[in-house]
Amino acid sequence: MTTTYTYSLPIGPIHPALKEPIRVVAEVEGERVVRADVKRGFAHRGIEFMGMKRNAIQTLYLSERICGICSISHPYAFVKAVENAIGMEAPPRAQYIRTIIAELERIHSHILWLGVIAHEMGFDPLLYWTWKGREMVMDLLEYLTGNRVNYAMYMIGGVRRDLNEKKIRAIKENMNYYRQFNQEMKDVFMSDPTYKARTRRVSLLTRKDALELCAVGPTARAAGLRMDIRQDQPYDAYADMDVRAVVPQDITGEVMGDAYDVTLVRLYEIDQSIEIIERCLEDLPPGPILAEPNLIKLLMTIKRSEGEGVGRHEAPRGEVMHYVRFDGTRDGPVAWKVKAPSYNNINIWGRVLVGAEIADIPIAVGYIDPCMCCNDRVAEVRRGGRELPYEEVRRKCREKTMRIKREVMG
Known about the structure:
Blueprint: E1 7-11, E2 23-29, E3 32-39, H1 47-51, H2 56-63, H3 73-86, H4 92-120, H5 124-145, E4 154-155, E5 158-159, H6 165-191, H7 193-199, H8 207-212, H9 217-222, H10 229-232, H11 259-282, H12 295-303, E6 306-315, E7 318-327, E8 335-339, H13 341-345, H14 349-352, H15 361-366, H16 372-375, E9 382-383, E10 386-387, H17 390-409
Antiparallel strand pairs: 1-2, 2-3, 4-5, 6-7, 7-8, 9-10
Helix pairs in contact: 2-3, 4-5, 4-11, 5-6, 6-11
């Protein structure tokens, strides 16, 4: 009779491979993971609660702080939600500018992921090379908006800054650079034997599991699901772009649903973003960039509005959804709820980690491009119709912190 032994391998919430706090406990038999338990909830910031204490424009800038990497994704979904709630539509030129900025961010986010996944497998020269290439689009975004991150570009009813001929020329030059640079990345990532050996058949996600676990974005598309908000429910300029979701079967003729496939999806989505940006520049309509340039008047319109709205945006990681509700008594939302793609995609870790080797755990974790701060927020809790007092909430936070500390320290 053979006796097998397993041991627990705790990863996080503080770990060199994790840039944000989350805890993964892997049950390991030899070098192979047989069970995995994922615990989140280490990054509470209370952003939704704070947003319901401010006016809608202040909450817009707060929404941009939900995610530091894809900082256009949440304000995009937020402005769409508010516009749906108050019956406002951004001018056509603003819609096209929104789409251009969103696709520029997709380029920088995908290149960032490609570098990170190379770093997680110890391929640091590839990390440095990709991130050097990423600097070009970061510099361009700074030139267009004034900031490398937290662009403050979107406004309820439009955008805050226009594109002149000089900026349009800079975008076109940037797209020429990335068309060549992305071809070089394809040559490396798709043919390098080291990268392929570390990603083929690693973090396998089946189409069935992706559907059951509600995966979104490149994570779902790598499993063969042709789903993309820009394709399924197009908004702003995407309605004129005929976007078709990128899936591995279109590239290689087969679907493995592994880390190699998700790499292919992101590489070819960069090409797609370049095409979308160039079409937007070619068809950029004239006209204003704000439906209501007087912000005081805009806030008064919001204050008089009653209703609710949902905004959806296909962020680089997947679908971002914002819900807002206004009651006609104040110029800010009385309800605001955010659902980020990591909220969905973290669920797949329990599946892709099982069967993986210890050395592949960082790749499996990085597979979804996780963002902890995107999906961890404090909710306002009421008991018996009453709001919990501040001291009680503070006490409960301390108790939870001590409980987590005991779990981590043993």
